[in-house]
């Protein structure tokens, strides 16, 4: 159709180089992801300089592959979208530079997209009926946000992490028990073999901010438990420990989310971000929403991790709203949700 809007999107905020072609904000024609996990596993986490260099090697290749898989050319594309923050500044710069060059050469509009907005928008791809307003819990590597999605492109942050994000806590605990990087999937897998009630870990509340999160104390409590066992030369069950830790994280996330749903009368609630693929979180949130008469939405795991399809989905609504980025678009590593 002549009215179709095709967005070529690029995502390079951390350790995935990704490109996608998305039609009308909801239909993914291609979604190419080149992951660097194996490379960064050697170092126990993402090394920013290595990530940036790898993005430079991969970005044009993934763009070419995305166009090829979608069976379109740049002439067919309506606009070019790119993540410009938040994220690792060097990694972001690679994607932004590539998107600007492609848009300029092809004579296409450029749209800068907020990474967190992309994660939220991932829910639109597989849930065609989902429209704002709704509540959303964004739990990715460096972010834990409880958001009121008032409309497309309009967000109110109800709560956010004061220290370690949930994903960071997963990575640090995984490293402490010898599971390595990336921590989230490995803890999720091992926790299935453990007893989530074996160890009572704290559920932190932030005074005066009922929707904010704090996972630093929980992480420290887990590390202290491990240290005490080692000092006393007592063995501990790794599966029980990670299951109990995961249970504490999930309990806090679900409790805050349902409290917000009641307070703001959300009839729909979604989760997004890398940790949203955690099986315990998905199960607990699904049950809590069902018990409270709330419609629950979540993306498939491949759309929870960093990808360009979600950026294309978000960009479509920005495009329809008339948002266009200028040629001086720059990477903003600490970009706040709602900022333009």
Gist of the model:
This protein is α/β, with parallel strands linked by helices and 340 residues long. Helix content is 44%, strand content 19%.
Second CATH tier, the architecture of the largest domain: 2-Layer Sandwich
Strand content: 15-25%
DSSP helical segment count: 11
> Considering the protein shown, what is the CATH homologous superfamily of the largest domain?
ATPase, nucleotide binding domain
Judging from the principal axes of the Cα atoms, what is the shape? globular
Largest sheet: 5 strands, mixed
Q: Can you write the helix and strand succession as a string?
A: EEEHHEHEHEEEHHHHEHEHH
Query: How many beta strands in the DSSP annotation?
Result: 10
| Class by SSE composition | alpha/beta
Mean pLDDT rating? 93
EC number: 2.3.1.234
Domain Gcp-like: 28-312
Binding site for Fe cation: 115, 119, 306
Cofactor: Fe(2+)
Please give the structural blueprint.
Blueprint: E1 6-11, E2 16-23, E3 27-35, H1 37-41, H2 48-70, E4 79-85, H3 89-106, E5 110-114, H4 115-126, E6 134-140, E7 143-151, E8 154-160, H5 166-176, H6 183-191, H7 216-231, H8 238-264, E9 268-272, H9 279-291, E10 295-297, H10 301-304, H11 309-320
Parallel strand pairs: 1-4, 4-5, 6-9, 9-10
Antiparallel strand pairs: 1-2, 2-3, 6-7, 7-8
């Amino acid at each position: 159709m002549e009215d179709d809007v095709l967005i070529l999107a690029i995502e390079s905020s951390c350790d995935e180089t990704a490109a996608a072609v998305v039609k009308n904000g909801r239909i993914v024609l291609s979604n190419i992801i080149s992951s660097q996990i194996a490379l960064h596993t050697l170092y126990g986490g993402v090394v920013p300089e290595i990530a940036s260099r790898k993005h430079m090697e991969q970005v044009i290749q993934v763009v070419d592959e995305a166009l090829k898989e979608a069976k379109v050319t740049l002439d067919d594309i309506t606009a070019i979208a790119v993540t410009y923050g938040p994220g690792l500044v060097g990694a972001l710069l690679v994607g932004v530079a590539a998107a600007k060059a492609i848009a300029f050469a092809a004579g296409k509009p450029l749209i800068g997209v907020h990474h967190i907005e992309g994660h939220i928008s991932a829910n639109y791809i597989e849930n065609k009926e989902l429209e704002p307003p709704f509540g959303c819990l964004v739990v990715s590597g460096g972010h834990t946000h409880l958001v009121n999605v008032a409309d497309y492109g309009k967000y109110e942050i109800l709560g956010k992490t004061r220290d370690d994000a949930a994903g960071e806590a997963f990575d640090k605990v995984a490293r402490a028990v010898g599971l390595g990087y990336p921590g989230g999937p490995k803890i999720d897998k091992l926790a299935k073999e453990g007893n989530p009630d074996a160890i009572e870990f704290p559920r932190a509340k932030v005074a005066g901010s009922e929707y904010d999160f704090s996972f630093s104390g929980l992480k420290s409590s887990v590390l202290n438990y491990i240290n005490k066992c080692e000092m006393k030369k007592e063995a501990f069950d790794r599966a029980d420990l990670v299951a109990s830790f995961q249970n504490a994280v999930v309990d806090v996330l679900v409790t805050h989310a349902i409290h917000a749903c009641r307070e703001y009368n959300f009839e729909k609630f979604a989760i997004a971000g890398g940790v949203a693929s955690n099986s315990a979180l998905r199960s607990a949130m699904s049950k809590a929403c069902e018990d409270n008469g709330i419609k629950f939405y979540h993306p498939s795991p491949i759309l929870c991790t960093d990808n360009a399809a979600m950026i294309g989905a978000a960009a479509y609504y920005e495009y329809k709203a008339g948002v266009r980025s200028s040629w001086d678009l720059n990477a903003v590593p600490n970009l706040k949700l709602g900022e333009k």
